[in-house]
From TrEMBL:
Stretches of the chain forming a coiled coil according to its record: none
Keywords: Oxidoreductase
Family: Belongs to the nitroreductase family.
Domain Nitroreductase: 29-203
Keyword Oxidoreductase: yes
Keyword Zinc: no
UniProt organism field: freshwater metagenome
Protein name per Swiss-Prot or TrEMBL: Unannotated protein
A GO MF term: oxidoreductase activity
Amino acid sequence: MDSVAPPPASTSSVAPFDLDTVDRLLSTTRAVRKRLDLDREVPREVVVECLALSVYAPNASNAQRWRWVLVEDPTHRATIGAWYRTHLSPPMQALLEQRRADGDDAGVRHSESVLHLGAIFDRVPVVAVVCVEGRIEDDPTLNGATWLLGSVYQAVWSFQLALRSRGLGSTFTTAHVLFEAELRSLLGIPETHSVVCMIPLAYTRGMEFAPAPRRPVEDVTFVDHWGTHL
Ligand SMILES: Cc1cc2nc3c(=O)[nH]c(=O)nc-3n(C[C@H](O)[C@H](O)[C@H](O)COP(=O)(O)O)c2cc1C
C-alpha cells in the first residue's frame, strides 16, 4: 500500500447525526483479535440487541435469508477452535514466514494476529455463526454469488458496527470454508443453508482504536471511465 488515508473531515454543513461520532465508528471498527477481553462475560441481550439492529441491512428482495447461530457452549467453541487451528494455522504460518522474508511488516502483523485468534479461539466468549438460506452450488454465477453473499454480508457489518458502538470487538472470519460440512453437522445447520462467516466477539480491552489503514479513496475511485481519477 503506497499511502494510507486519514479519515475524512466532514464537508457537510447539515447532517442528521453527530458526524464526528459516526465517522469515528465507521473508521475505527477493526478486526479485533489481540485486544479481546476473554475474561469478561458477554450478556446475550447485548448480542441480540446488535443482531436486532443488523436486520435493517439491505438484502435481496427483502427475503431476509440470514440465520444466526450464537455459539456460547464452551465444548462447541473448543471443537471449532481445534478445526480452525488445524486448517488455518499451517498455511498462515507459511504465509507469515514468507512475509517475514519479504520484509512485509504489515503482512507479518496480520498473520501473527490471525494465528493469535486461532490460539485463543476456544476462549472467545461468543462466536456468531452466520448462515444464509441457499448454496453457492445452486447458482455458481456472479449473479448467484451476489444475491447469496450480498444478502447477508451487509447485515454482518451492521452487526459489527453495533458491537463496536457498545464496547465489543469482533472479526469477520471465513476460515470455516475449510471445514464447513463439519461445522454444519456440529450445529445442526441444514444442507439447504450455507455458513458465510464466523464472528468471534468479546468486549475489548480499552475502547480506543486507530483508524484502519486504507488506501486513499482518490487512488481507487474513477469518474465516468476506468482510469479517470477524481
Ligand atoms: C471475506 C473476508 C474474509 C476474512 N477472513 C478472515 C479470517 O479467516 N480470519 C481472520 O482472522 N480475519 C479474516 N478477515 C478479516 C480481515 O483480515 C480484515 O478485515 C482486514 O485485515 C482489515 O483489518 P482492519 O479493519 O483491522 O484493518 C476476513 C475479512 C473478509 C472481508
